[in-house]
Design brief:
alpha/beta, TIM Barrel, 8-stranded mixed sheet, binds iron/sulfur cluster
């Protein structure tokens, strides 16, 4: 079951978007130097359509994107909630996913998200805003990945 620990309005995670970033727990990755080790535990509250609806009613007018931070233990649920956001907002709010996987095992994500970040955190290579990073940020357009990682380096 997908669970969230907290959320915040952020400006850096997705270029040119004001994002509601939702931090998901039960992360299956074990990156050395993990920025939020508590997210590796199965903690928090269930995240479902009811919670998403409440968040959109509260913050929907002030954001342009919802960004799921994690969720690799339940990728189908992340995709399902992203599709729900698109339907609920009539595509007004974009959807993004920060995954720690190198590649996604599902093509569903291509049709559920406007942005996808891929790659685990590798301490000596640095996070997404470092030019040395292994992580990649993609914009999804017409079912294709466009690498926009360079936009994080400004
Ligand atoms: S993917 Fe993120 S939350 Fe998960 S272990 Fe790696 S750094 Fe930590």
């Amino acid at each position: 079951m997908l669970k969230y620990v907290d959320y915040d309005i952020v400006f850096q995670e997705i270029p040119d978007e004001v994002s509601l970033a939702i931090n998901l727990s039960n992360c299956p990755h074990r990156c050395e130097g993990c920025h939020s080790p508590q997210l590796q535990s199965d903690i928090g509250e269930p995240l479902n359509e009811n919670v998403i609806t409440e968040l959109l009613e509260k913050y929907g007018d002030g954001i342009t994107c919802v960004c799921f931070m994690g969720g690799d233990s339940a990728p189908d649920e992340v995709c399902r909630l992203a599709e729900f956001i698109r339907l609920f907002t009539n595509d007004k709010i974009k959807t993004a996913w920060y995954s720690g996987c190198k590649v996604l095992n599902t093509d569903t994500a291509l049709h559920s998200f406007n942005y996808i970040k891929l790659g685990p955190y590798i301490e000596h290579l640095g996070p997404l805003n470092k030019k040395t990073t292994n992580q990649k940020l993609f914009k999804i357009s017409q079912g294709k990945y466009q690498n926009i990682t360079y936009k994080m380096w400004k």
